[in-house]
Write a structure and sequence with these properties.
Distance between the termini: 28 Å
Number of domains: 1
Structural class: mainly alpha
Radius of gyration: 18 Å
Strand content: under 5%
Shape: globular
Length: 288
């Protein structure tokens, strides 16, 4: 049987497509905030992503055991919280800075429990990057937006740990699809409470589906392709490029211009993340 183009995609282009897709999707999502609100946009994105993944993987929900549900539910709640917090941060600060601050989560997982002096270097580099972003002056980054991004990073760290636990109990596609259902239920009260869903039109629903495709379905598929033949360490190093790609997408699609100090903070976090991935014997990387 002839392979499909997706299956024949080399691993490096696949992971780069995944990175650009996620950040491009975030940029487009931010364009929906004025009408749907951050929580409403998160609800549409996660809800439509759940439908796409359910159709693609058809998880056996009725056959899941109590132990499997105990793994799915916290994973899904964390997934939902991570997304709504990240979108709330995007409503207040540039995309590049939001992703930079959020990236502290997976970096923390990568160096957690380490006693090596080298890992302290990565922590200090990341800390310096955060210090440069911090709103030290009245004209600095919005403090609540920065707090939302850091909270999203904390959820990302928990998501990695919980996702690893769930992956040992369910196949990857079924695990993510099941978790997306719980994530949708988690976000739904905030999406409804924000009132943005009342403004939903067919055109906005199509835009939301496009965001869901770019932010979940396409990158998940590309990451799975890349991970089949790419070492986890190499994959993690490529994932470290996300803050830079996010900043470039913010510039290209949202006209978000970062200052020199802010670009330096992005570079420091990238260096810390890449260094931790390169030197770690079991590097953590972003789950789909």
């Amino acid at each position: 049987m002839a392979r499909t183009p997706a299956r024949s995609l080399p691993p490096i282009p696949a992971v780069l497509i995944a990175i650009v897709s996620v950040q491009g999707g975030a940029a487009i999502a931010k364009g929906l905030f004025p009408v749907l609100g951050a929580a409403g946009t998160a609800g549409v994105r996660i809800g439509l992503s759940a439908l796409m993944l359910l159709a693609a993987f058809r998880p056996p929900l009725r056959q899941l055991t109590a132990a499997q549900w105990r793994a799915v539910v916290p994973y899904g709640i964390t997934l939902g919280a991570m997304n709504v917090l990240f979108y709330l941060s995007l409503a207040r600060i540039p995309l590049g800075l939001a992703v930079t601050l959020e990236f502290i989560g997976p970096l923390g997982v990568a160096v957690a429990g380490s006693r090596r002096a080298l890992d302290l270097v990565w922590v200090l580099l990341a800390g310096a990057g955060i210090a440069l972003i911090a709103p030290w002056t009245a004209n600095g980054v919005d403090p609540l937006g920065a707090a939302y991004a850091l909270a999203a990073g904390g959820c990302w760290a928990a998501y990695i740990v919980l996702g690893g636990r769930l992956s040992r109990m369910l196949p990857g596609g079924a695990a993510v699809a099941s978790g997306m259902i719980v994530a949708t239920l988690t976000i739904l009260p905030f999406a409804i409470g924000g009132g943005g869903l009342m403004q939903l039109t067919p055109a906005l629903l199509v835009a939301g589906a496009f965001v869901a495709l770019l932010s979940s379905a396409l990158p998940y598929t590309c990451e799975m392709i890349a991970l089949r033949s790419m070492p986890a360490r190499t994959f993690s190093i490529f994932m470290s490029l996300e803050p830079a790609v996010a900043a470039l997408c913010g510039l290209a699609f949202l006209s978000e211009h970062l200052g020199g100090v802010q670009w330096l903070s992005v570079a420091l976090v990238i260096a810390a993340s890449a260094g931790a991935a390169l030197s770690s014997p079991d590097p953590a990387h972003e789950p789909a």
